[in-house]
Recover the amino acids of this structure.
């Protein structure tokens, strides 16, 4: 190691030589999550088979073909398994491609891993950062070149993220891979990443962006149709940044976001979008399912089963996307459907139906079984008349005859399912008992690194739980018959609270119809909410977009909004001027006249008066009186002329006739009140009267009622004059 | 000196990961690798040819398995095996002749005969006729002098006669290797010059003011057309773009750069245009023993269109593309399904491949086969580096290049060592 380090120093000191440094990659052979539990309790995620090949094979094959020469595999959970696998793999013997393992026992996050790698001082230049569950067939040349050029121009451009366009499902707001929606803001010209948000809250339909983003950049594009491939091209600074900020744990949540928020150092992250190539990361069971199907459909070419198949187990692609290895014992009456992969040495009994599934090596499948959309790993025994739908079945599982796996079931290693037993949907079954106390840190892969074998892991877990393995075992025996039917071995893990919701999101099973219906309902409600929102009082005073609703609806909505604004103003003691402002903005957005405003406000005032407690007509009148007193300024500001005043009277009529019958007896009094308050002028009332002259009898009800008042009014001017004269 | 095994592994890896593709490149690389294998192979005193054959077969078997679709690899392996057998035969007959002349009946002659049980009476007769090779139809028909090999081997035979008996054995082993390597060099030379050899015949086939149609891009076709152009023929070329890889675009560009009148059409317009075409000239991926052609996808359609309008369908193929196998289920077994991303952009269609909702099975399948199989009855003429041939003549051509013992490369009984 020592001489290497010296050379490294020399190399990094001389920028000329930097170009000649072999391309390096850091492969994190640990996802630091618990998504694949219980399987990952016994085997590291990177060694789980994806279409009959360990995931890490795909990653290494891609790194090799992309021109990476040195790979540092960081092993943490089950490090021994990963290392021994790599030791015996083809990758160790390849020229111009070196695979070095770095072992750690106490790293609990990607951040820790990168800090350790920095300490080791093995990375000398730009490197590719990837986790062992990512597969791709993209060419790195372009992305690397772009990265280098940017770095030359701007030493702060330290990272290039590979992204891919992928439309989120319109219904569930989650991507094909089962990950949550992702929002990114990207500068369309420079491709700089400006904002990164994993939208964890499904119901929340809003997204808030720092307005400084808009200030600083002339143009940004917001994407929710971009998928993060989790392939990063990093400069050396990334490692030192992790070391400097020892609280960075998660690559995206802490590091990327931290860098985007922190503008002191001014480090920049850029994106590289791939179009025709494929890149995706197995994040959860749904991603596992989707990516398996993509592989079978050959999107990952040349990383497809018939090309990658190891050693002598040559897989051949037959018609309709059927991959079959050599030495398969298949009954004549067995039906193997399209898009199915069958591994070497598997035997299939008569009348068995297999569709859209992957079956591993050395499995024994009885007759009359049904396997649909499932992933059966190696050396599984499935007896007669079993049914598997959308399930994952790990190595060495035994399914006794007529047992049934409902959609979404995961059977971990060597579980035995008893005869006739039906495993309920989404259940996870393991030989290990579910750890009851969760670590406080949310994302820890099972940290018991010393227990690589099943047994020690089992006892280890049990020790942790109870301290007495024997007792535990007896309990297990007890569980045998009760949990998994007669002769069954294993525990059904109870679903953790809170994650119940997640089960169907992340399982291999397609989302059930009722869930889909539920989500659609929720979305419709959301939409309604949104549209209501836009009609709700514009508290921030912003302009609402023109709605497409027709004018009549508009008027109704407008009235409602004004009312809401008014009520809020009353309740919160908002100053009259502010209310005027708000109503004005509403008026503009709804394209209304001052008359409409006046009508609406008057309506609101009457409502307010009515809502106040009253038993007698007198009290009601007093309420009205108070309200008008309090808000006359508001009303007046919308009554610049006679026409508006007439409108108010007409409105008042309407209110009395249609909505609030209670007010009709008080019509004259209130009209008088308004006149007294100088809200409505004499001319307006006279005009109103003359307008009504030709109307129907029905319409003239209030004119008649107000006859005395009108009479008085006609005589009043003289009085006024007289008074004035006096 | 690089280790042979690592080089073999490297080529295996490249073939497997589809890093080298195309019959020309793979054929060349295979021949170069096999030459190295032969030169590095230590030859025992006895069973020299058998040792070489085994070494080549062992490597060849792996190479063929690495990418069974690249038939050229298997062709070259068989060609090299054939060369070894031929050279061995010629040497032993020379030795026999020499022995007969000197009339010495010591044990060496016996061992030689033990070594080569394949040595038949016919071969001895051939040797006595001094042709040193079994008479090929080509030599009989075209009366071509059997190039270089004859004078070369016979002269070396003369040398051997001059040498002392004790040196004979070692020099013979060295000579076998030497001769084989010489012949493989010739083979490599042939592969790299096959374009020119074929292009030389262009003027015989392309006439003034003709309209030629081709699909996709093939270097052989490009050279062929340009050779005719250089000979002052004026003609027009229709290029079908060759979806989904659109290599026809590149070909059109090249042709225009060389001053040829070119029209680019969509693949789907072939039938509409074929009536105006005088001749279809295309390249091939491989020519099978029955005269059928494994060709870039779309050519079967072109061939059918050409037949409908009685337009000659001419296939250009270097001799390394001649495959001694008969096609069995060629659409599936001799085909490669490439990535669907060549047809459509993954991002744009990712919502069609959401398995989360619905039945969990994809409704959209994208199939992208690389090759078409064109049956022999649709082909009018093959132009190889040795001249023009009928599809029905291909089997005979193949008999010239390959020995029947090598048709099956898989060594089932796993003999030797």
């Amino acid at each position: 190691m020592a001489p290497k380090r010296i050379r490294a120093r020399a190399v990094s000191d001389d920028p000329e030589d930097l170009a000649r440094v072999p391309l390096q990659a850091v492969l994190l052979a640990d996802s630091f999550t618990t998504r694949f539990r219980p399987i990952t309790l016994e085997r590291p995620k990177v060694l789980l088979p994806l279409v009959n090949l360990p995931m890490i094979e795909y990653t290494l094959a891609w790194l090799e073909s992309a021109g990476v020469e040195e790979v540092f595999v960081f092993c943490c959970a089950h490090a021994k398994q990963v290392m021994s696998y790599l030791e015996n793999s083809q990758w160790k013997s390849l020229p111009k491609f070196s695979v070095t393992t770095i072992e750690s026992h106490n790293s609990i996050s990607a951040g820790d891993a990168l800090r350790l790698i920095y300490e080791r001082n093995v990375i000398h230049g730009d490197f590719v950062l990837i986790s062992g569950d990512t597969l791709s067939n993209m060419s790195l040349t372009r992305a690397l070149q772009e990265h280098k050029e940017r770095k030359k121009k701007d030493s702060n451009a330290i990272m290039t993220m590979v992204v891919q366009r992928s439309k989120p499902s319109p219904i569930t707001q989650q991507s094909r891979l089962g990950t949550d929606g992702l929002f990114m803001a990207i500068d369309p010209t420079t491709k700089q990443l400006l904002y990164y948000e994993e939208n964890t809250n499904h119901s929340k339909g809003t997204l808030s962006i720092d307005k400084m983003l808009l200030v600083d950049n002339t143009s940004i594009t917001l994407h929710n149709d971009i998928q993060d491939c989790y392939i990063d091209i990093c400069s050396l600074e990334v490692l030192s940044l992790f070391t400097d900020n020892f609280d960075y744990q998660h690559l995206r949540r802490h590091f990327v976001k931290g860098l985007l928020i922190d503008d002191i150092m001014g480090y920049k992250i850029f994106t590289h979008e791939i179009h025709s190539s494929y890149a995706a990361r197995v994040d959860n069971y749904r991603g596992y399912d989707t990516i398996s199907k993509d592989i079978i459909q050959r999107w990952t070419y040349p990383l497809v089963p018939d090309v990658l198949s190891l050693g002598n187990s040559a897989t051949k692609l037959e018609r309709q996307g059927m991959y079959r290895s050599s030495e398969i014992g298949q009954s004549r009456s067995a039906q193997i459907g399209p898009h199915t992969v069958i591994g070497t040495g598997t035997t299939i009994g008569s009348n068995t139906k297999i569709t859209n599934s992957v079956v591993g090596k050395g499995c024994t499948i009885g007759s009359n079984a049904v396997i649909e959309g499932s992933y059966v790993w190696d050396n599984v025994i499935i007896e007669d008349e079993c049914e598997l739908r959308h399930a994952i079945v790990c190595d060495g599982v035994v399914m006794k005859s007529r047992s049934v796996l409902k959609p979404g079931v995961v059977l971990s290693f060597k579980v035995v399912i008893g005869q006739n037993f039906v495993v309920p949907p989404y259940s996870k079954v393991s030989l290990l008992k579910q750890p009851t106390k969760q670590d406080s840190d949310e994302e820890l892969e099972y940290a018991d690194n010393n227990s690589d074998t099943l047994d020690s892991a089992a006892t280890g877990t049990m020790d942790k739980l109870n301290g007495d393995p024997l007792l535990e075992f007896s309990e297990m025996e007890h569980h045998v018959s009760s949990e998994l039917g007669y002769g069954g071995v294993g525990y059904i893990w109870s679903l953790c609270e809170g994650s119940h919701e997640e089960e169907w999101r992340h399982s291999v099973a397609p989302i059930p119809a009722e869930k889909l219906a539920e989500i659609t309902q929720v979305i419709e409600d959301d939409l309604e909410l949104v549209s209501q929102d836009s009609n709700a009082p514009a508290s921030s005073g912003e302009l609402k977009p023109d709605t497409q609703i027709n004018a009549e609806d508009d008027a109704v909505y407008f009235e409602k909004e004004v009312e809401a604004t008014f009520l809020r103003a009353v309740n919160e003691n908002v100053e009259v001027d502010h209310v005027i402002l708000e109503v004005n903005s509403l008026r503009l957005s709804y394209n209304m006249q001052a008359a409409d405003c006046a009508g609406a406000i008057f309506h609101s005032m009457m409502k307010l008066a009515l809502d106040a407690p009253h038993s007698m007509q007198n009290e009601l009148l007093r309420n009205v009186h108070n309200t008008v007193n309090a808000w006359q300024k508001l009303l007046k500001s919308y009554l610049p002329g006679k026409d508006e005043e007439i409108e108010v009277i007409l409105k008042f009529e309407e209110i009395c006739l249609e909505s609030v019958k209670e007010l009709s007896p008080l019509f004259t009094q209130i009209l008088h009140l308004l006149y007294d308050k100088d809200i409505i002028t004499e001319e307006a009332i006279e005009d109103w009267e003359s307008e009504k002259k030709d109307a129907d009898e029905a319409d003239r009800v209030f004119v008649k009622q107000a006859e005395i008042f009108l009479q008085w009014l006609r005589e009043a001017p003289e009085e006024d004059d007289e008074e004035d004269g006096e | 000196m690089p280790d042979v095994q690592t080089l073999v592994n490297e080529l295996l890896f490249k073939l497997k990961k589809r890093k080298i593709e195309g019959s020309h490149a793979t054929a060349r690389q295979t021949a170069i690798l096999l030459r190295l294998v032969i030169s590095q192979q230590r030859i025992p005193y006895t069973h020299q040819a058998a040792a070489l054959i085994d070494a080549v077969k062992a490597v060849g078997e792996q190479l063929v398995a690495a990418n069974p679709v690249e038939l050229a690899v298997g062709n070259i392996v068989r060609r090299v095996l054939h060369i070894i057998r031929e050279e061995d035969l010629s040497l032993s007959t020379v030795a026999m002749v020499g022995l007969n002349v000197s009339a010495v009946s010591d044990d060496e002659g016996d061992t030689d005969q033990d070594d080569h049980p394949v040595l038949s009476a016919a071969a001895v007769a051939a040797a006595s006729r001094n042709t040193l090779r079994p008479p090929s139809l080509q030599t009989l028909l075209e009366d071509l002098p059997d190039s270089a090999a004859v004078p070369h081997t016979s002269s070396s035979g003369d040398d051997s006669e001059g040498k002392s008996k004790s040196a004979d054995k070692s020099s013979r082993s060295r000579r076998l290797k030497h001769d084989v390597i010489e012949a493989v060099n010739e083979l490599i030379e042939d592969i790299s010059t096959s374009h020119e050899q074929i292009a030389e015949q262009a003027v015989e086939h392309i006439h003034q003011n003709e309209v030629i149609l081709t699909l996709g891009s093939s270097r052989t076709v490009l050279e062929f057309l340009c050779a005719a152009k250089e000979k002052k023929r004026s003609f027009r070329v229709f290029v079908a773009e060759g979806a989904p890889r659109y290599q026809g675009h590149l070909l059109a560009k090249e042709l225009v750069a060389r001053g040829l009148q070119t029209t680019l059409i969509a693949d789907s317009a072939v039938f509409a245009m074929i009536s105006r075409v005088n001749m279809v000239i295309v390249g091939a991926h491989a020519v099978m023993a029955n005269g059928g052609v494994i060709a870039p996808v779309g050519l079967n359609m072109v061939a059918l269109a050409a037949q409908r309008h009685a337009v000659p369908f001419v296939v250009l193929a270097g001799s390394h593309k001649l495959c001694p196998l008969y096609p069995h289920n060629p659409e599936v077994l001799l085909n490669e399904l490439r990535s669907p991303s060549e047809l459509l952009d993954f991002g744009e269609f990712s919502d069609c491949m959401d398995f989360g909702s619905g039945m969990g099975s994809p409704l959209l399948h994208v199939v992208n086969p690389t090759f078409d199989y064109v049956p022999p009855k649709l082909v009018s003429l093959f132009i190889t580096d040795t001249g023009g041939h009928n599809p029905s003549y291909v089997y005979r051509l193949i008999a010239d290049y390959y020995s029947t013992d090598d048709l099956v490369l898989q060594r089932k009984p796993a003999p030797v060592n």
